[in-house]
Design goal:
Layout (H helix, E strand, L loop, with lengths): L2 H14 L7 H30 L9 H29 L3
Length: 94
């Protein structure tokens, strides 16, 4: 499941629940859901890396896949940091 597929149910709920006035709780709920999805994607990418790390040597054909997975891990780590900071910033408004 890619990130877009994971976000579709949330986006559909957001589209159906479009309001003129949003409460702080609405922002917090969406920020928490986004953070959770990014965290889940990050954990899955780490699991994939751990699977490759069990090999004595990564097959030559899979080096590009391994490198792409490492890039994805770095991007997801940055995204996770941003979404977490958003959640914490919104939480301070209580």
């Amino acid at each position: 499941m890619n990130l877009r597929e994971a976000l579709l149910p949330i986006l559909e709920k957001v589209d159906k629940s479009v309001k003129k006035n949003y409460s702080l709780g609405d922002f917090q709920n969406v920020a928490n859901a986004t953070d959770q999805l990014i965290t889940d994607a990050f954990v899955k990418a780490l699991r994939l890396k751990a699977m490759w790390d069990t090999f004595e040597e990564i097959p030559i054909q899979q080096h590009a896949l391994y490198d792409n997975n490492m890039k994805a891990i770095n991007l997801l780590a940055k995204a996770r940091n941003i979404t977490y900071q958003n959640c914490m910033s919104l939480k301070r408004y209580r």
